[in-house]
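Minutes, structural biology subgroup

Action item carried over from last meeting: produce the structure token record for TonB-dependent receptor (Humisphaera borealis). EB confirmed the sequence was re-checked against the source entry. Recorded below for completeness.
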Amino acid sequence: MVRKFFTALALSAGMTTAAFAQVEGKVTFDGQAPARKPVPGITNDANCSKLHKTAPLDESVIVGKGGELANVVVYLKGDLKGDAPADEVHLDQVNCIYTPHVVSVTVGQKLIAMNSDPFLHNVHTLPENNAPINKAQPVKGQKDTIPTKAAETFKVKCDVHPWMAAWVAVFDHPFHGVTGEDGVFFFETKGLKDGDYDVVAWHEKFKECATGKVTIKGGKGKVDLKVTPKAALAPANEREVLVSTVVKGPTCCTDGSKCAETAAKAKAEAEAKAKADPKTAGATAQ
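Output recorded by EB:
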């Protein structure tokens, strides 16, 4: 809502967003976009089914006709400082869906979880560095604060409705934004010196999926990023091979599974098989 209001304000003044002191750009998806599937279970719920004639589509990967990639957090990387914006950020529960699906905030900025539905939801955050909350929201209009005291990215879910999920990215500085369905992002540069900066894009499925450089001059900068998540879109059997051959840690996993344990187990099984059948030893060694 804040992003839409900001854009509308610029247009009403006869200006584009480029007239503001900000970094802006677009994130596109380079490759075959995965088909979006209906949200499972939402039309089977007594309350939620009344709000949807057909199941809405999953929001984890939204790619437009021109490759525009939504819900990407784009931020400047480095030892940066800046004041937290005074504006509140809202994570709402509307028609049994978290809205927006992804938000970015600055440490100390107020993040409010709210319920716009006339029945029970709960807000269950899964952070590592911030205090977690698991708060029931049985009343329409109820608001609760999500702590934002430390930088990290974490998931938010509703235990009442298991398909409901959102992501929160918290930063030590205010130089970050989230792409809309048009793939566009922007953030203000107040307090930021002119110069060259590293830019990183993060997506819930593809993680840190693109990097780039932006030159800021007179407070303004523009950078477009392209996401090519080949590993993330590999067939299931191909990804299993990656998991079974990498044993140094869970870098190949994006779903929170115990990658190292799986890899170690697969390696042990392969070694045992090689000992039992010496003919396979050479292949295993390769």
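Discussion: The longest helix spans residues 259-276.
Next step: EB to file the record with the rest of the batch.
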